Amino acid sequence: MSTARLDLDDVRRRVPTLSLIDDRTIREETARLTADAPDYFWRVPASVSDYHHPICREERGLWVHTLMLSTVIDRLADSYVGQGKLEAADVDLAHAAAILHDQRKNGSAENPQHSATQDHELRMADVAYESDLPDRVGDAIKSHMGPWYDGPAPASPLADLVHTADMIASTETITPAVAAPIPEELSQFDLRAADLG
Predict the structure, then answer these.
(1) How many whole angstroms from its chain centre is CA 153?
(2) Residues in domain HD (predicted)?
(3) Which candidate, 68, 116, 118, 153, has a CA 20 to 30 Å from the CA of 47?
(4) For residues 32 and 46, what is the distance between their CA atoms, to the nearest angstrom?
(5) Domain range enclosing 174
(6) Mean pLDDT over all residues of the chain?
(7) Which sign, positive or negative, has the C-alpha torsion 97, 173, 176, 9?
(8) Residue 128, φ and ψ in degrees, nearest 5
(9) What's the rounded Cα separation, in Å, for the pair 139 and 152?
(10) What is the pLDDT of residues 96-111, one digit of tens each?
(11) CA dist 53 → 38, 77, 119, 179 (Å)
């Protein structure tokens, strides 16, 4: 199995939360990396166990989870900025990390696993570190699982925001909305659209 590079316009359609990234360089680099996401990223469940919201346990659930996470980031970021924990520009980095965080969840494109790999956060962090994104994005991706999963603990407010938002977006009983417009491939889900613009 290989990865077919998506057209950047298709990436923007599939991930409407890219528009929440104000910095053009960060937005375009995040879109470029997403264009190279393994094909499975768009098709597989976020979890094959009882973890995650029931919608996210279905086909295309990993994609849905990613969109839900961006909505939670959008909601929590104002509090982090208001408390002086983050600068407003840091919110772009949080959105980039949210979009990218699980793009290697089932491993490599060439040899994907049936479910999450134990090091998926490190695999995707390495991709981010090798890109033109600031290393802080890779740091946030690397610690998004947190110490509860034998991963590194978030070491900065940015990483803490991504980790906390991921925990919320992964909760079985919480159903975050997703940024409008909802991609047509996800229309079979009972998703609530949010106008985050």
Answers:
(1) 18
(2) 64-167
(3) 153
(4) 22
(5) 8-108+121-194
(6) 89
(7) positive
(8) -65, -40
(9) 10
(10) 999 999 899 876 666 6
(11) 22, 22, 22, 17
Give the residue carrying structure tokens 């949080």. Answer: 94
Please say whether the dihedral angle defined by the alpha carbons of residues 166, 171, 174 and 178, taken in this order, is positive or negative.
Answer: positive
Task: Answer yes or no: is 59 within a domain.
Answer: yes
Whether residue 73 lies inside any domain: the answer is: yes
Q: How many domains does the chain have?
A: 1
Can you tell me the mean pLDDT for 45-61? Answer: 84
The residue written with tokens 């890109």 in the block is: 131
Residue 65: how many other CB atoms lie within 10 Å: 26
Q: What percentage of residues in the chain have a pLDDT greater than 70? A: 89
Element (H, E) at 178: strand 178-179
Structure tokens at 19: 């528009």
DSSP state for residue 110 in the 8-state scheme: S
Of 8, 59, 34, which is closest to residue 124 (Cα–Cα)? 34
pTM reported for the whole predicted model = 0.93
Tell me: pLDDT of 1 over 50: no
> Is 1 inside a domain boundary?
no
CATH number of the structural domain spanning residue 41? 1.10.3210
DSSP-assigned letter for residue 156: S
Residues 6 or more apart in contact with residue 171 via CB below 8 angstroms: 53
> Does residue 115 belong to any structural domain of this protein?
no
> Where are any strands of DSSP class E within 28-177?
none
